[in-house]
Amino acid sequence: MSQPRQPIESGVPDPFPEMHPVMVKNYGQWAWHDRPRPGVLRHVAKSGDTIHTVKAGTQRQMDVYTVRTLCDIADTYADGHVRFTARSNIEFMVADPAKVDPLIGALAEAGFPVGGTGNSVSMISHTQGWLHCDIPGTDASGVVKALMDELHQEFLHERMPNKVKITTSCCQINCGGQGDIAINVQHTKPPRINHELVSNMCERPAVVARCPVAAIRPALVNGKPTLEVDEKKCVCCGACYPPCPPMQINDPVHTKLAIWVGGKHSSTRSRPMFHKLVAAGLPNNPPRWPEAAEVVKTILYAYQADARPWERMGEWVERIGWPRFFEKTGLPFTKYHIDTWRGARASLNTSAQVRF
Amino acid sequence: MSQPRQPIESGVPDPFPEMHPVMVKNYGQWAWHDRPRPGVLRHVAKSGDTIHTVKAGTQRQMDVYTVRTLCDIADTYADGHVRFTARSNIEFMVADPAKVDPLIGALAEAGFPVGGTGNSVSMISHTQGWLHCDIPGTDASGVVKALMDELHQEFLHERMPNKVKITTSCCQINCGGQGDIAINVQHTKPPRINHELVSNMCERPAVVARCPVAAIRPALVNGKPTLEVDEKKCVCCGACYPPCPPMQINDPVHTKLAIWVGGKHSSTRSRPMFHKLVAAGLPNNPPRWPEAAEVVKTILYAYQADARPWERMGEWVERIGWPRFFEKTGLPFTKYHIDTWRGARASLNTSAQVRF
Amino acid sequence: MPSTPLLDQLEDGPWPSFVTGLKRLATSEDKPYADMMKSLLGQLEHSYQTRTGYWKGGTVGVFGYGAGVIPRFSEVADKYPESKEFHTLRIQPPAGMHYRTETLRKLCDVWEEHGSGLIAFHGQSGDIMFQGTSTEQVQPAFDAFNEMGFDLGGAGAGIRTSMSCVGSARCEQSCYDEQRALRTIINGTLDDMHRPSLPYKFKFKFSGCANDCVNAIHRSDMAIIGTWRDDIKIDQEGIKAYLAQHGRQWMIDQVVTLCPTNAVSLKDDDTLTVDNHSCVRCMHCINVLTKALSPGDERGASILVGGKRTLKIGDLMGIMVVPFMRLESDEDFAALLDLATRMVDFFAENALDHERIGEMIERIGLVNFLEGLGLEIDPNMIAHPRTNSYVRTDGWEAEAEKWTQRKGPQAAE
Amino acid sequence: MPSTPLLDQLEDGPWPSFVTGLKRLATSEDKPYADMMKSLLGQLEHSYQTRTGYWKGGTVGVFGYGAGVIPRFSEVADKYPESKEFHTLRIQPPAGMHYRTETLRKLCDVWEEHGSGLIAFHGQSGDIMFQGTSTEQVQPAFDAFNEMGFDLGGAGAGIRTSMSCVGSARCEQSCYDEQRALRTIINGTLDDMHRPSLPYKFKFKFSGCANDCVNAIHRSDMAIIGTWRDDIKIDQEGIKAYLAQHGRQWMIDQVVTLCPTNAVSLKDDDTLTVDNHSCVRCMHCINVLTKALSPGDERGASILVGGKRTLKIGDLMGIMVVPFMRLESDEDFAALLDLATRMVDFFAENALDHERIGEMIERIGLVNFLEGLGLEIDPNMIAHPRTNSYVRTDGWEAEAEKWTQRKGPQAAE
Ligand code: SRM
Ligand code: SRM
Ligand code: SRM
Ligand code: SRM
Ligand code: SF4
Ligand code: SF4
Ligand code: SF4
Ligand code: SF4
Ligand code: SF4
Ligand code: SF4
Ligand code: SF4
Ligand code: SF4
């Protein structure tokens, strides 16, 4: 091999050469927007210029053929520019309103659902899973696909009280983040330790430091230095697994799914919120995870039926109260719902306010 | 001395023999009440019976002459029954409405302010202070008297947005509890240790355990076992002083007063709240503590001017926000306002919501 | 009489002056306490001058009891010798703090004979505090009060004197018989008051409704707060009367928009409705519209545990541990006492030295506490479920089953 | 082609199927990646069957950089040998994720030549993820992207790839130039991205307003969120148009009562007013009435620090540390970069190994953090002042004086 090439440290590319010309021209000078139909935004600039955005769902993990199909559609109907959203939806910008309907037609034709705007259920935030990660308890692409199949109509229509942002994650690290509904891995047994491997490959002080409850301590097995886990303390979080692969936390049976509700990032109306545990113990059941999907739909439709306009999932539950949330969804309330982590006191009812 | 007398363990006396007969008759069968004027409640029973309550302020720490004067008034105008409230106000119950005005006249005559009902400022909760306690940093009777003189008109009238419950305490233990406004002791220097005494009288392990920040450790001074305080850690709380009097926390100069705002015990509308620090460093200035009184009045009248009907002090500040509270009261905001205790995170602004 | 220039300034102003009272006692030359009170005034003035307190504790009590007297010995007895001892007797008042004047006069008489003549109605925990007597007079004073039907209150590491709101005696909001509940519990746990041997103090407080007129949530280890399970009672004629008097805008501003859960609606036909499933029994609408609204018929109390002041982990409020318990029949009150007793026992067995029950719960976790006491889990105990995934959930199915068992029949109601 | 009965079930249903995509690649027999993708499908099906993942990490990179490639080696390479290496290149997209189709096609071409043909638009942090290539092809792939004007993104203990909302490019709510801010900070701290040596990862996220379309508060170590200091702009004609279309009730229910601080009033003359001192810039009214309301003219951003996911002390949200900083002039953007740099430096110096900045603040206390960075104390940083008296306040007067100094002139404004 010849002398290696020096990287050009160019950093973040300038977006302006890539941006639709109407956006460039009116950059920072927009006046208002509306949504002529689900999946379509119309933004009007102070100059009077208008741009329509047509939004479609993708599988995120795309083969080049899919990308090229999307490019073909963009070239034909959308001035040759696209952008992707924070949730891996694709947006086509068109200057000419007459192109909107044909564009929608072409997308539908090619199998891309048009929607995800306004008060719909948008694409589920997607992580790596079995496809690529080194620590996953479940798949991400599969969970997302299976769930989005179920929620397809809610992507197409804007019939929720407010936006619904669903997230998923393939281990308890949760690269998928907080969500109105989150479908997350929840391990239920402490890691099994492969002692043979620990002595060989594990940087032991690092993994001991990583445990949030100090459950890991050095030990000797067959005369070799290894680790052991205090199973009484261990909260089965799997934080020891990435730095120390011999701490095998994943298990085909005991790695379960849990559903969380009411995460909210926006500071709109209410302050941002974390999501809260509502159901656990759900089987990690590929390829379609029907048990988890069922719980998600139950919650989603209870919200749809009962929330007031603009109430996000978490705001709705705050108003009706957790006792009624469990009543309306029929989900069991258990001791596991009561927080035990630092600051847990703030999650307790320290008032005489009570609901029957 | 002869054989000592065995106590009769009678416990809490039965209140019915002491209670006004109209109350006994209608016990648990009341229909509604109103307030014909400040200081007077009218309760109507389901039976149609009516009882008027006339409420008056006292000094709590009463000499027998004062008590007998109150009894005389009760005998003449109030059917011979009284009760005391949770805040050491006295209540006279009268079955005959015609007696209300003469009763009020007699109380005024005898120097007892009639009021403290409805949206007034009630009596300040009272503790022991220099009069009786073994650990006080200030007096209680004096602070209460001085403040109630200042707030007298607000006791007589019901012109606050909601009830105002003020508390005070003569050390940081705070027997006076939470208040809409609280005037509390705040020490500002670590205890000076009287080493001579420690060795003699202090149960050392107990006091070491009592310190909330583990700032006390055993030490040797002049060869004798004593204690020392890590002044970097010490939060000057005085918790070590009751179990170990040689830990002299009280100081004529460095023991200051602090004002807290927004405590709320009721679960009415909002959940109960703790009060929050708003001003500190105020001199402990007997006999009339004018600096503390000034701050209290500033806060009280800002609340009166700005709060909406039924808003308790803490509810008002929640609505207008702390930035405006400091603006409206002109009190300085400092780093000391930012909580540093466990769970402090819950008191931080973790949202993009901001006020200018 | 000592010179008291600072204290004298506290005789000015409209509020009744304790200084004037102290002086009255000090100048009652015919009374046994006059000299003691002169001395006391001197010491108090000295405190005002030096901004320093001069009392220290000690051990003084009455025969048969381990607590209830607060001993005070002066550190400046050389200067003010007559008040070198100045002990306080804590005496429990009748529940609800009702008195015949006759009773008050007798109490005064006893305290003129055996004490300083200075009485506080009442201490923050609810005692009548007879303030100031010598070691020698403690026993005779107590004997006299005891003969009258009064008993010592709490101090030290035991059950403390309790307080209930005026409640049923007068207040239409009352949801249970507060005085009975207080007497049931306190008189049922007297041994732990009079011979204190708990890890630390334990207070009960009784409020008839969520207005919490005795500050029970913040200031008691076990708060018993009245509530109801069925619907708010609405008298629509009463509503019309309010509307006629104040108008619709008033009703909207003072009631409808202030309901914390938006459960109140004012209809176009001027009726008012409440969504009772959303209502959190906060009392606001009932407070404002007391002539038209009242608590439902299925009354009882919620129990909250763990309120206290700052030491050592910071102030704590009580945590809801029993959302509803009926308080009507004898059995209901027996069940309340049973719960209180088990609570105290659990505290006695599990708390560390000088640890309040709220601190203990903080340390062992609410779930362990509930399980220890056999209390059933309920979503009313939380403001919201856990936000943190660090928990071992392998018992999920069994726990879920418990809930389904309990709620199954109810769901069919 | 391997048999994939479970994965096949993911080809059903209306949502675009990644499995169909993978199969398309696996059956592109003319392409270099066909065999790799057959193998990959086999391994993935195996994962579905066994509910177990089979990748492990390792060390793979490009010349000159210390991060940006996520190496993956198969643990079941004996069964599925062609995908035994399956590394991902993280490539930073143009700020705001805008693309000409021409650019996308070129990216596809490179990835057909050097990789698997599988691309994720985008990762949760904002990278284009080119997923799956051999160790050997990593460098040529990067070289080709780099020549096109793209650069590697972040991984490991350094600055991470960032994300900004679409903002100024299209959105009328935008309060600052998000793309410029993103490029200013990231391109100004590239060294810490490409040669990571911080205690742990550090993420920036840029949202143009409080709607926070990139989840900055929860998911970034430093969140830059648009806001304004002056008054909301109201076009009363626009309000009338909304009223004409939807009626007053709608306006009250959808706007007035939903304002979190009751700052919005609808007047009898059908004008709408905002109490701008109470307004918390939450965006709700502007969202609903976008044709009539807009952020004020004095625009800029708030800075929040410390958001992150669960490890190891539990999820954290960012804390408000700069309520307002103007973002208009070149100097403003320079000041932003300066703050970001100082923040990263302070983090580098003070955080423990594997500790995020939010955890560090939790450990050292917000006040120490603010003082360390020289940020001025402001009540906008708190939800409420301290409720606990355990603090040493002997510097009170000096601190109070600082405030008075700062606010004195302002008060006169
Ligand atoms: C395209 C996108 C930004 C981007 O740079 O990619 C975007 C675009 C818009 N958002 Fe957003 N948001 C986008 C992600 C988000 C997120 C983050 C997320 O999806 O993970 C949030 C925070 C969610 C949360 O709180 O957990 C978000 C919270 C909002 C809100 C506040 C909603 C609320 O009431 O809490 C608004 C205001 C509104 O709905 O009017 C908003 C409004 C908007 C507007 C109206 C802004 C505009 O004029 O362009 C855009 C169209 C909304 C619509 O579809 O009706 N956007 N928006 C993102 C699309 C994601 C997707 O494909 O679904
Ligand atoms: C007499 C007393 C009970 C007792 O057993 O002694 C009492 C009596 C009443 N309270 Fe109270 N409260 C009494 C202490 C309290 C306290 C505790 C305290 O003062 O330390 C509180 C809790 C304060 C807090 O939250 O910090 C209290 C919070 C209320 C509330 C709720 C107020 C709110 O909106 O938060 C109501 C409801 C109302 O105002 O209509 C209430 C209502 C009432 C009613 C209307 C009940 C009734 O019908 O008798 C009484 C007359 C109120 C009036 O004056 O207008 N009472 N009330 C106490 C008088 C103390 C005093 O002399 O000032
Ligand atoms: C007398 C009284 C103040 C008053 O003038 O009303 C009082 C006085 C004392 N309290 Fe108190 N407390 C009194 C009600 C309270 C309350 C209010 C209440 O009960 O509702 C509290 C707050 C609630 C609570 O229980 O937390 C209270 C919280 C404390 C504490 C802090 C306890 C804690 O866990 O934070 C202490 C310190 C201790 O126990 O070590 C304390 C300790 C004391 C001591 C014994 C000081 C000591 O350690 O030597 C004081 C004796 C003073 C004396 O000379 O009589 N006192 N104390 C109140 C009792 C009178 C009565 O029996 O009716
Ligand atoms: C690829 C990606 C998921 C995806 O498919 O989109 C991802 C994948 C991984 N994340 Fe992540 N994280 C990704 C965005 C996130 C986010 C979301 C965000 O950035 O907005 C979070 C939550 C926010 C945060 O930063 O806390 C996130 C929180 C984590 C954490 C937990 C950090 C914490 O302090 O709690 C770890 C564990 C660690 O760093 O030790 C982690 C670690 C990992 C590792 C490196 C697993 C490991 O330790 O070996 C994953 C590599 C998977 C792979 O094979 O590529 N990832 N990770 C995302 C990055 C793509 C990109 O560059 O665009
Ligand atoms: S959530 Fe876990 S398994 Fe999934 S990509 Fe992130 S680190 Fe990997
Ligand atoms: S799974 Fe979590 S709690 Fe258990 S040992 Fe590993 S890091 Fe510790
Ligand atoms: S507040 Fe402190 S000084 Fe005052 S009575 Fe209570 S313990 Fe004594
Ligand atoms: S004053 Fe408080 S913090 Fe300081 S040593 Fe005493 S107990 Fe500890
Ligand atoms: S707590 Fe309720 S029942 Fe008791 S007096 Fe107060 S308002 Fe009445
Ligand atoms: S009691 Fe409180 S929560 Fe219930 S309806 Fe009335 S105001 Fe609303
Ligand atoms: S965060 Fe605000 S400015 Fe950015 S896209 Fe969302 S709504 Fe527009
Ligand atoms: S931006 Fe939010 S807080 Fe401000 S007026 Fe509008 S709704 Fe109210």
Automatic annotation (TrEMBL), chains A, B:
Gene Ontology cellular-component annotations: sulfite reductase complex (NADPH)
> Which SUPFAM superfamilies does the record associate with it?
4Fe-4S ferredoxins (SSF54862), Nitrite and sulphite reductase 4Fe-4S domain-like (SSF56014), Nitrite/Sulfite reductase N-terminal domain-like (SSF55124)
4Fe-4S ferredoxin-type domain residues: 225-255
Any one Gene Ontology BP term: sulfate assimilation
Q: What is this protein called?
A: Sulfite reductase beta subunit
User: Could you tell me the keywords of this UniProt record?
Assistant: 4Fe-4S, Iron, Iron-sulfur, Metal-binding, Oxidoreductase
According to its UniProt record, which cofactors does this protein need? siroheme; [4Fe-4S] cluster
Q: What NCBIfam families does this protein's entry cite?
A: dsrB
Q: Which InterPro entries match?
A: 4Fe4S_Fe-S-bd, 4Fe4S_Fe_S_CS, DsrB, NiRdtase/SiRdtase_haem-b_fer, Nit/Sulf_reduc_fer-like_dom_sf, NO2/SO3_Rdtase_4Fe4S_dom, NO2/SO3_Rdtase_4Fe4S_prot, NO2/SO3_Rdtase_4Fe4S_sf
> One Pfam family this chain carries?
NIR_SIR_ferr
Q: Give a GO molecular function annotation for the protein.
A: electron transfer activity
